[in-house]
């Protein structure tokens, strides 16, 4: 079983079964207008587009690799917001796919620095313009169920990541290793097609396994096995509205 170093599952669950930031609104050209950029970066269209697959953003030693990613996925990664909360954009935002390979000047670039560089790349190459809004919309809150969470605290030296696998009885599983609940929250949001707000108060790194049901209705039972619960309610959530984007310029 392969565990990806720094990865976020984004789209395959949404395709086959149905990954909190600033609250102030403003144009992306003002949406932090990051000044940092990659030393080198390549953006290539995937033609023909790949079928349903695991889309991961991998960062290692200052290098970013993203394979067959759609624009909405890339924007969500760059701005640290659930894909389902990225709205608007061109008709091809959920169909055309791109491979992105980039290198920061420093091998020690942090996750936040890499994201800022990805924001710059979106503005430069995709001509992205967007703004943030906060709206009260139907959503799910992830809370700790009565009896407490059943998550194992990860050891400090453990490598972080997740992987899809199959249990002995043939059920699909996602195994999380030394992972924050944010990965689970994003996965649930994409699968349910609705924003999910983490209200567990659990901010550590954990080892746990989620067994995926054949139907979305039993997803709630799967989450309950982790000692967690999804509650449907209206929430004031942040969304990122894509006002404009173009096909990327050449390398």
What would your notes on this structure say?
By secondary structure, the protein is an alpha+beta fold. The chain has 2 domains: 12-130, no CATH class; 135-237, no CATH class. It is built from 5 helices and 12 strands. It has helices spanning 12-17, 71-78, 111-125, 181-192, 219-224; strands spanning 40-46, 57-60, 63-70, 86-88, 97-103, 129-144, 152-153, 161-166, 172-179, 196-198, 206-212, 228-244. A 4-stranded antiparallel β-sheet has the order 1-5-3-2. A 4-stranded mixed β-sheet has the order 4-12-6-10. The protein has a 4-stranded antiparallel β-sheet with strand order 7-11-9-8. The two termini are 35 Å apart.
How many beta strands in the DSSP annotation? 12
Oligomer designation = single chain
> Into how many domains do the coordinates divide?
2
How would you sum up the major sheet? Answer: 4 strands, antiparallel
Distance between the termini: 35 Å
Contiguous low-pLDDT stretches (5 residues minimum) are 1-30
Widest sheet: strand ordering: 1-5-3-2
Tally of helical segments: 5
Q: Return Rg in Å.
A: 18 Å
- Tell me what portion of residues adopts beta-strand conformation: 35-45%
Element string (H = helix, E = strand): HEEEHEEHEEEEHEEHE
- Overall 3D geometry? globular
Strand-pairing-aware structural class: alpha+beta
What share of the residues lie within helices? 10-25%
Whole-number mean pLDDT: 81
């Amino acid at each position: 079983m392969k565990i990806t170093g720094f990865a976020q599952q984004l789209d395959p669950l949404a395709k086959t079964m149905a990954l909190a930031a600033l609250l102030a609104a403003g144009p992306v050209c003002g949406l932090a207008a990051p000044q940092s950029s990659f030393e080198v970066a390549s953006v290539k269209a995937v033609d023909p587009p790949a079928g349903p697959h695991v889309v991961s953003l991998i960062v290692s030693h200052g290098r970013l690799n993203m394979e067959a990613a759609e624009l909405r996925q890339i924007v969500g990664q760059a701005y640290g917001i659930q894909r389902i909360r990225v709205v608007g954009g061109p008709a091809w935002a959920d169909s055309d796919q791109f491979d992105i390979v980039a290198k920061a000047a420093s091998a020690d670039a942090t996750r936040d620095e890499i994201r800022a560089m990805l924001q710059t790349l979106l503005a430069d190459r995709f001509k992205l313009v967007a703004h943030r809004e906060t709206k009260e919309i139907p959503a799910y809150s992830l809370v700790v169920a009565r009896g407490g969470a059943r998550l194992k605290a990860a050891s400090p030296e453990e490598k972080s990541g997740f992987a899809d696998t199959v249990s002995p009885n043939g059920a699909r599983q996602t195994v999380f290793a030394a992972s924050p609940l944010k990965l689970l929250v994003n996965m649930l949001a994409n699968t349910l097609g609705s924003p999910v707000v983490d209200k567990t108060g659990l901010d550590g790194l954990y080892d746990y396994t989620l067994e995926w049901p054949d139907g979305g209705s039993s997803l709630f039972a799967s989450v309950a096995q982790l000692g967690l619960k999804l509650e449907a309610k209206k929430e004031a959530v942040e969304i990122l509205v894509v006002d404009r984007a173009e096909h990327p310029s050449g390398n």
